[in-house]
Write a structure and sequence with these properties.
alpha/beta; Aldehyde Dehydrogenase, Chain A, domain 1; Aldehyde Dehydrogenase, Chain A, domain 2; 7-stranded mixed sheet; binds nicotinamide-adenine-dinucleotide
């Protein structure tokens, strides 16, 4: 591991022009891991100019799809060869458990790169033919130009790759801004990008505060698209800044996922799905189970099993293979989550698991897996995104009320339904206003399937060929076949028939 990282602009590892740096903290030990350049507006401008120039010269976009695919595939091999060290670094920086980063994040990153390497070679579009009857219409699918990717801290490399892979596969140039808490794996990955053969200037990384770097990326007229994963309020600010040159936007924002348990649902399956879906990544997941809405006939039994399971989570050093839950990413995030728990209690919720800091861990931003019962859909804990290990539970009598509650939220990212009658689950899924609905499962993603929200969870899809399309533009090229100076339709403008 490098003791001091640099930013990557125009194929060079550089300090910030200000020479300032900021500390990156290990949330388990509360100690400084390393320092990273505190990028400035000027650094962001340099990176944008570089990306623009590389795109305009066609150093990457002019390569054949097969050539681009080969480089991206090579990159995936580099990630595979370095899987253990990347997983370890991610765990250290985010606080996520090693079993999660090594066996979930990194394999998915590799698969995602390979999927999009394939996408580069199978461009989809309408067939070229004579739709007008007088000439041939051809669809060209082209890269957009400069894509700025702004990524969050909960899945630093994983979510960065969701944007990098389709953007590169489509032939774009990039400027990427990692979250300030978690820039390290992206910087390690950048070395692999260089070795895999992405040309100089095409791939740039600027570290530093969102308000400064992110704002420059969002407002620059030389940037063609912003791909953001982040908070809904950040998305709203970016929408405003991006309006100056009508940039394309791809916004993956917050979530507040419900889990609905139907009366015939298997109690063990619901309880397991709820705690795994609610507490993975220490609950810092936009699709995490946050509201468990259970039919009253099975409510007590499900809640009892959830509590038993929550109490068995092993909290500790995320680098220890047996640890189930690491710390939250920062002190600030833990304070925020504790504020929500307090608010939940003040509003009438009752803590039935966790609720505080684990006594056996003296250092680190740990918080126990927490379950609140006697909650209602109008409480803050059921409405706002907490982004921590906190689940609210309550019961319902009528299914229509449960569906109404599930949908009664500004977000629309993900939801799940549990029950043995699959037709009944399907009917509920059809009525849920969320971009993903799982049945008897919560949290599975696939490179081939789209991930993205409705409502204030944003728009645009990550993963899948739908995502690839978003990093391209479609051009209609028309070739006249009549060879006539006066076309048959010209009389509608000039002259007679
Ligand atoms: P955040 O919005 O604070 O930060 C996200 C990124 O935006 C960071 O790189 C940050 O530096 C940058 N940023 C912050 N303010 C900015 C500004 N004014 N202009 C430009 N850039 C700015 O989010 P976070 O705390 O890093 O991540 C958690 C959020 O991300 C949650 O809301 C979560 O739901 C969301 N998220 C969504 C998905 C999804 O797929 N929809 C996935 C993961 C996380």
């Amino acid at each position: 591991m490098d003791s001091k990282y640099r930013m990557y602009i125009n194929g060079e590892w550089v300090d910030s022009e200000s020479k300032e740096t900021f500390d990156v903290i290990n949330p388990t030990t509360e100690e400084v891991i390393t320092e990273v350049p505190q990028g400035t507006k000027e650094d962001a401008k340099t990176a944008i100019d570089t990306a623009r120039e590389s795109f305009d010269k066609g150093v990457w976009s002019n390569k054949t799809p097969a050539e681009r695919a080969r480089v991206i595939w090579k990159l995936s091999d580099w990630v595979e060869d370095n899987a253990d060290s990347l997983a370890k670094l991610e765990s250290m920086n985010v606080g996520k458990t090693i079993k999660y980063s090594r066996d979930s994040d990194i394999p998915f990153i590799i698969d995602n790169l390979r999927f999009f390497a394939g996408c580069a070679r199978i461009l989809e579009g309408r067939s070229a033919t004579e739709y007008s009857g007088m000439g041939t219409s051809i669809i060209r699918r082209e890269p957009l130009g400069v894509v700025a990717a702004i990524v969050p801290w909960n899945y630093p490399l994983y979510i960065a790759v969701w944007k990098i892979a389709p953007a590169l596969a489509a032939g774009n140039s990039l400027v990427i801004k990692p979250a300030s808490y978690t820039p390290l794996t992206l910087l390690e990955f950048t070395e692999m990008v260089e070795k895999a053969g992405v040309p100089k200037g095409v791939f740039n990384v600027v570290t530093g505060p969102g308000e400064v770097i992110g704002s420059e990326l969002a407002s620059s007229k030389k940037v063609d698209m912003i791909a953001l994963t982040g908070d809904t309020n950040t998305g709203k600010k970016i929408m405003q800044m991006a309006s100056n040159n009508v940039k394309r936007l791809h916004l993956e924002l917050g979530g507040k996922a419900p889990l609905i348990a139907l009366p015939d649902a298997d109690i063990e399956t619901v309880a397991q799905g709820a705690v795994v879906g609610g507490f993975w990544n220490t609950g810092q997941d936009c699709t995490a189970v946050t509201r468990v809405i259970i039919n009253e006939s099975i409510y007590e039994k499900v809640v009892h099993r959830m509590v038993e399971k929550a109490k068995k989570f092993r909290l500790g050093n995320p680098l220890d293979k047996s640890t189930d839950m690491g710390p939250l990413v920062s002190e600030r995030q833990r304070d925020r989550v504790e504020g929500f728990i307090k608010q939940g209690v003040d509003d009438g919720g009752k803590i039935i698991a966790g609720g505080g800091r684990p006594k056996h861990l003296k250092k680190g931003y740990f918080l126990e897996p927490t379950i609140l019962k006697d909650t209602t859909q109008d409480m803050t804990v059921c409405r706002d995104e907490i982004f921590g290990p906190v689940i609210a539970v309550y019961s319902y009598e009528k299914l229509d009320d449960a569906i109404e509650d599930a949908n009664d939220i500004d977000y629309g990212l993900a939801a799940s339904v549990y029950g043995k009658d699959i037709a009944a689950c399907m009917k509920v899924a059809n009525k849920l206003d969320f971009g993903t609905v799982w049945i008897n499962e919560h949290g599975i993603l696939a490179s081939e399937m789209p991930h993205g929200g409705f409502k204030q969870s944003g728009f645009g899809k990550d993963l899948s060929s739908y995502s690839f399309e978003e990093y391209t533009r479609i051009k209609h090229v028309y070739v006249d076949l009549t060879g006539e100076a006066v076309k048959s339709w010209h009389y509608t403008v000039f002259g007679g028939k």
